[in-house]
Amino acid sequence: MIVLAIDTASIDCSAAVFDSAAGKLLSAVSEEIGKGHAERLMAVIDQALDEAEVALDQVGKIAVVIGPGSFTGIRVGVAAARGFALSLGTECVGVSTLETLAAMHHAVSGDAKPVVIAMDAKREEIYAQAFAADGSSLGEPAALSAEDVERLAVSASADLFGSWVTKSQDRFDIGIVARLGAARKADGSRPKPLYLRGPDAKPQTGFALARV
Predict the structure, then answer these.
(1) CATH classification number, 2-96+169-183, choose in 3.30.750.24, 3.20.20.70, 3.30.420.40, 3.30.70.1710
(2) How far apart are CA 178 and CA 6, in angstroms?
């Protein structure tokens, strides 16, 4: 099966094409743009399909990063993935940023140890989740304090990894997203954004005009 993976949850706008039958990544395109994912996503997807020499109607599954991450960016990617899946009549699955970072950590380090992924969520909070050495989750993702994250790592006997630890930008390997999505069974539901708290921007109150 050909899998199209999409990520707009961070500073990157990314797409990849993966052949699950051959276990081969056919293409991966990633642009560091910060903002403006809606304007660039379709061009990035077209480039990934062109480089893979795959037509859109050959895609059998869509995988999309659902967060946590950029509030607006996540909405762009999820909406695009659901639109593609509907028009193509294909499966559509969500992959979280936290599980992607866990898979990246295990792939690079080779450590057969549990890991707590800790992403800086701003406002003195941290997005965190514990994973076993095989990548399976050991609990639900949550927005926690620094003290709670450290306690989680101790209780799980796990290493800490992620932007809160490394002070780096959150960036997600789109090839790993594609592999995770290829392995995930679709359950018939549509992917939804994974928001662990409300948006930073709040609508102003007190300025609404009374309805006639």
Answers:
(1) 3.30.420.40
(2) 8
| Assigned token pair, 185 | 């069974």
Using CA atoms, how far apart are residues 128 and 207, in angstroms rounded to an integer? 37
**pLDDT tens-digit readout, 175-209:** 999 999 999 998 888 999 999 976 554 544 454 44
User: Is residue 147 scored above 50 in pLDDT?
Assistant: yes
What are the sequence ranges of the domains in the chain? 2-96+169-183, 99-166
Give the distance, in angstroms, between the CA of residue 147 and the centroid of all CA atoms in the same chain: 25
DSSP string, 65-122: EEESS-HHHHHHHHHHHHHHHHHHT-EEEEEEHHHHHHHHHHHHH---S-EEEEEEEE
Q: Token pair for residue 143? A: 């927005």
Give me the pLDDT at residue 110, please: 75
Strand, coil or helix: 201: coil
Tokens 């707009």, residue located:
8
99-166: in CATH 3.30.420.200: yes
**How far is 182 from 112, CA to CA, in rounded Å?**
23
